[in-house]
């Protein structure tokens, strides 16, 4: 019945698959180029990779300072 009414059965989307698809992607009405897609994909992947290694240390001037350790040089 969802097919007839135009509703999608899948309510979850994999952004990784979306970024590598050949569909046009826009952000606030601006078309995202393939180079932009790659950059955004890398930013998201890096964020998710380092999420567990993020440290929040108090900074008296700003209230806190956030660090992100991507473990690039860790063996």
Q: Which series of helices and strands comes N to C?
A: HHEEHEE
Q: Going across the biggest sheet, name each strand in turn.
A: 1-2
In DSSP terms (H or I, runs of 4 or more residues), the helix count works out at 3
Whole-angstrom Rg: 19 Å
Mean pLDDT score, rounded? 77
Rough outline:
elongated
Uncertain segments of ≥5 residues (pLDDT<50)? Answer: none
Q: What amount of the residues lies in strands?
A: 5-15%
**Biggest pleated sheet:** 2 strands, antiparallel
Summed up, the domain count is 1
Overview of this structure, please?
- There is one protein chain.
- With 75 residues, the protein is of the alpha+beta class.
- The chain has one domain.
- It is 36% helix and 13% strand.
- It is built from three helices and four strands, in the order H-H-E-E-H-E-E.
- It has a two-stranded antiparallel sheet with strand order 1-2.
- It starts with a helix and ends in an 8-residue tail after the last strand.
- The mean pLDDT is 77.
- This is Transcriptional regulator.
Feature tags:
75 residues, alpha+beta, two-stranded antiparallel ribbon, 3 helices, 4 strands, 13% strand
Which secondary structure elements does this structure contain, and how are they paired or packed?
Elements: H1 2-5, H2 15-20, E1 26-27, E2 30-31, H3 34-50, E3 55-57, E4 65-67
Antiparallel strand pairs: 1-2, 3-4
Protein name: Transcriptional regulator
Organism: Lentilactobacillus kosonis
């Amino acid at each position: 019945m969802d097919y007839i009414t135009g509703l999608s059965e899948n309510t979850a989307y994999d952004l990784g698959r979306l970024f590598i698809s050949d569909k046009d992607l826009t952000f606030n009405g601006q078309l995202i180029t393939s180079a932009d897609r790659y950059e955004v994909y890398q930013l998201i992947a890096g964020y998710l990779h380092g999420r567990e290694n993020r440290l929040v240390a108090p900074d008296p001037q700003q209230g806190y300072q956030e660090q992100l350790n991507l473990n690039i040089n860790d063996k």
